[in-house]
Amino acid sequence: MGNFLKRFIRNRMAAAGVAWVLMLLLVGFTAPWMSTGDPLRVGANAFAAPGAAYWFGTDNQGRDIWSGIMHGTRVSLAVGFLAAVTSNLIGIAVGSAAGFHGGRADAFLMRLTELFQIMPRFFLALIIIALFGAGIGKIILVIGILSWPPTARLIRAEFLTLKGRDFVEAARASGMGNFALCLRHILPNALPPAVVTGSLEIAQAILLEASLSFFGLGDPNLVSWGSMLYNAQGYLRFGWWMSVFPGVAIFLAVIAFNLVGDGVNDALNPKTRART
Question: What global pTM score does this model have?
Answer without folding.
Answer: 0.84
